[in-house]
Amino acid sequence: MASPPFLVASDLVNLAVTVQDGAVTQIRLHGRVTRPPETPFERQVTEELSEYLAGQRSRFTLHVSPTGTDFERRCWDALQQIPYGETRTYAEIARVVGNPNGYRAVGSANHKNPIPIIIPCHRVVASGGGLGGYGGGLDLKRRLLALEQARHPPPALEKDLGGARSAR
């Protein structure tokens, strides 16, 4: 049985996190819950997400269990392969999941991603250089990419990030 959502608070965004059977099952951006983490696993989730949001973690060790269609899960698996600080386009993800013309379907899968941040849909941008969409709003997407100092962004994204590039 899933636990009630608990709060992971940060200056960047508040998250309402749901876990079940040792896995993260949902993260709601801009969460409005007040319950603190209570179990050891909930405290681990809080620690890892807090470290990420403070710019002190680039990889998660948490098990995730998203609910979605086979195609959505393939997309979410592909998102988890995008390295910290890098971006991919919707079209690139469509090719990776075997549907080269399915960039809109990838956008839909991103929109339905139940575990944003850990499954990093914010790292997917439009082929034309724009940010594309983001369930948490484009301002949060910009801020997450800036936090990661996204490498080699398309020119429009570089402009959106204020010219931030990393030589990592």
Please summarize what this structure is.
By secondary structure, this protein is α+β, with helices and mostly antiparallel strands. It has helices at residues 40-53, 70-79, 90-96, 103-111, 138-147, 155-160; strands at residues 6-8, 15-20, 23-29, 88-89, 124-125. Helix 3 packs across helix 4.
Characterise this structure.
The protein is of the alpha+beta class. It folds into two domains: 48 residues, no CATH class; 91 residues, Arc Repressor Mutant, subunit A (Orthogonal Bundle), CATH 1.10.10. The protein is 33% helix and 12% strand. The chain has six helices and five strands, in the order βββααβααβαα. The protein has a three-stranded antiparallel beta sheet, with helices on one face. The longest helix has 14 residues. The protein is globular and about 45 Å long.
